[in-house]
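I'll show an entry:

:::
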Amino acid sequence: MKQLFTTLGRRAAAHPLRTVLVILQLAVLLSLAAALTRPVQSAAFTGAEMTGLRDQLPVTTDDRGGIRLQDGCDETFAGLAEAEAADENSVGVGVFSSPWFSLWEGRYEFSIDYAAANARSGVTVGTLRANVTMTQSAGYDLTLDGDGTVSGHFWVQGRRSDLALQVYADTPDLTVYAVRVQEDWGWRVVRLVTALLLFAALDLLVWALSPDSRLLPDPRRRAVLFGLAALTVLVCYPTFSDFAGHGPDTYFHYNRIWSIAQGLRSGQFPVRIYPDFLNGYGYASPIFYGEALLYFPALLVLAGFPLYQAFNALLFVTGALTVAIGWISFSRMLRSRTAAFTATALYATAAYRLTDCYWRHGIGEAIAIAFLPMIAWGFWALYADDASPREHDRAWLPLMLGFTGLIQSHTVSTEIMALTSVALVLLCLPRALRRRNLLILLKGAGLTVLLNLWFLVPFLQYLRDPYRGTALENHDLNAVRTSVGFLFRLWDDDLSTSALRIGGALVLAAALYLLCKAVFRRWPRRADQIGIPAALLGAAGVYLVCWMDWNSLYEILGTPIAKILCNIQFPFRYLMPVSLCFALLGGCAVLCLQHCTTRQLAAGAASILVVLGCLLAWMDCGMYAHGYIGRNRTAEGRDIQSGKDNSMLEYLPVGFDEDWTDDTSFHTVGGAVITDAQRGDLCCTVTAENPSDADASVELPLIYYPGYRLTANDGGTVSVAKTAGGKVAAVLSPGYSGTFTVRFVEPRLWRLCEVISLLTAVALLFGRRLRRLLPARRT
C-alpha cells in the first residue's frame, strides 16, 4: 500500500495539471453519487391549502375542496386580463398560489387537477407555473388545456431553490383541486452517468495530448489534435450556453426531435410517422426527410434532458463531425498537415455553415455540410493521378459514406450534391469513362443504395402519391437570388442576412489561390487536380446563387424535369458546395506556397487564413452565445408551437386542411353509429354499427398515409380507405356491428429493406473478419 501511494505521489508530481483535473472530476462525481442517497423530494397541496395571488380577486373553496374566485369577480378579472394581454410575456391573470417550499437541483414532474366551465380540448383555460427564485429553470409553464388532470416536467438548475406553484387563469371560472410535485430520481443517475462519459472523453483527450502519451507519440500529431480540439470548441461554443438560439426553423426541429422520442416511446423503430404531430393526427416527415442523427438528441430527451439541451448536444456533435470529417478528408487529399488544417479551419468556420447551425437552425443542412468533404475525397481518390492504388480501389468507401450522410440528413442537399457530382464527372469525363473507374463508381452507388434501402424504398413509394411538397413548383427562384456584393462581404453583424455570404476567410483563400496560379509557373500537379475542379465548381456555384436565370431554365427543362432539378427552395443553398470548394482552394494555395516558396511563407499564409477564419467565426458565434437572437429554453413538446405554425407541412396529402387537426372527434358518413371510440398513438379503436343497407364509414382523426390497416375486428367486414380530404376512413359493410382497430403498421417490404440495409452494414463493418472465419478453398 505504501508503495502504491508513493507511485501515485510521483505521478501526481510529474503531472500536476492532470492531477488537479482528476481531483476536480472526482469531487464532482462524489457529489453526484452522494446525491443518489438524498431522499426523493415531493410536495402536494389541495385547493384548500392554496391562497389567492391578487387582493382584488378574492377566492373561496367549493364543497370538493377546490379553490376558485368568488362570484362577482368577472368584471374585475376582465379588466386585469386586458391589462395582461398588453404584455407579450404574460401567461394570464395570476389567481392562485401554493405555499412556498424548497427543492434541490433536479428534474421534477408537476401536475394539477382542475376544472373550468365550458372547457374543451384545444381551448387554453390557464397555466400552472413553477415559480423558481434565485436560479435558472426550464419547463416551468404547464398549459391547462380543456379540463381534468395535466402533468409535465420542469428542471431546477442550481442548488437549493425556493418554489411556489402558481396558477394563471384565462377564464374567471377556473377551479383548482390539487397541485403536486414529484422528483424524478432517475435524473440523478442520468447526471452521474453523463458526467462519467464527459470526464472519460476529456481524460482521453488530455492523455492523447500529453508528451508521454503512447497513443500519439509524434508531437506533430499531438499539435494537430490540439488544433482540431480548439477549433471544435471555437465553432461549438454557443452550445455551451444555458439556452439555445431562436431561429426560423427552431421549433420545427424541436418538433422533429420530440416526435422521434415519442415514436420510440410508442414502440416504433425506425420512426416512420410522428405519432403526436398535429394534435395526434400523425405526420410522415421521416419518410421524406432523413433524420438518422436526430435519434441521438431524441434518446437524450427520453433520458430526461430538456429539449434545448438535447438540441445543443446535436449542434455540438454536428460541429465536431464537421471538423473531424474535414480533417480526415482534406489530409488524405492534400497530404500536407498545414494545408489540410487550413482547409479544415476554413470549412468549419464558413459563414454559411455557422448560420445554418445557430441562426437559421437548418440542422438538416448543417449535418449534410459535415459530410461534403468525404464526397470530395472519394472523387479525388477515383480520378487523381497521385492517389495510391489502394486509395483508388477504395474510392467507393468515402463516396458511399458521404452520400449516406446526405441521404440521412437532408433531401435537398442530396439533390444539390448529386447535381454537383454530375458536373464533376463531366469535368473529368475521360477518366470517368475508364472501365475500372466506372466499376468503382457503380460499386459506391450500389452500396449506397443498399445501405439506405430502408429509407429509399418508403420514400419512393410515397412519392407516387400527391403530397404538398411533391406537387409544389418552386418557380420564382429569381426573386430570392443574392447580389454578388452581398455575397462577398467580409462580415456583417446583421444576423438575418449572414446566411447570404461566403465569409471573408473563404474569399481571401480563393483570391490567394488565383494569385498563386497567376504568379507561379511551376505548379504542383496535386494542387491542379484539386484546385481546378474546385475553382470551376465554386465559380459555377456563385453564378447559380447570384446570376442564374432560374425562370428561363424552368421553361427550357419543362415542368416535370424542372420540378426535380430546380426544387431547391433557395439558390443560396449552393453556398454549401461553394464553401467546400473555396476551402479546398485555400488548402491548394498553401500547398502551392510550400512547393514554390519557403515553408515559412506558406505557414504564414496558412496562419493568416486560419486566424481570420477563426476571428470571424468567433465574432459570429459570440452573437449567438450571448443571446442576441434570443434565449430559448424549450423543455418538452408541450412548449413547442403547433406543427401548423412552425412547418410548411410539405408532407401532407394534397387536399388535407391542417385546420382540421383542431378537431379530434370521430365523424360518421352514411348512417354509421359510433357507441365508443378510443384514440392512441397512430391507432383508433371504435365500436360502431351500420344499420343501413349500404356501406357507411367512420372518419378517424388520422392523416392517411400508406401503412394504415385493420389490425382487429370482431364484427363484419371493415376496410381502410382514404377520404377525399386525406383522412383515414373505416368503411363498414351493411349490417356491421362490432369493434375494430385501425393502426399504422410498417409494410413487410419495408421490414425486408431494413434487414437488407442492416446486413449490408454488417458486411461492410465485419466482412473481412467474416471471410477469415470461412474455411479456405482447396486448390
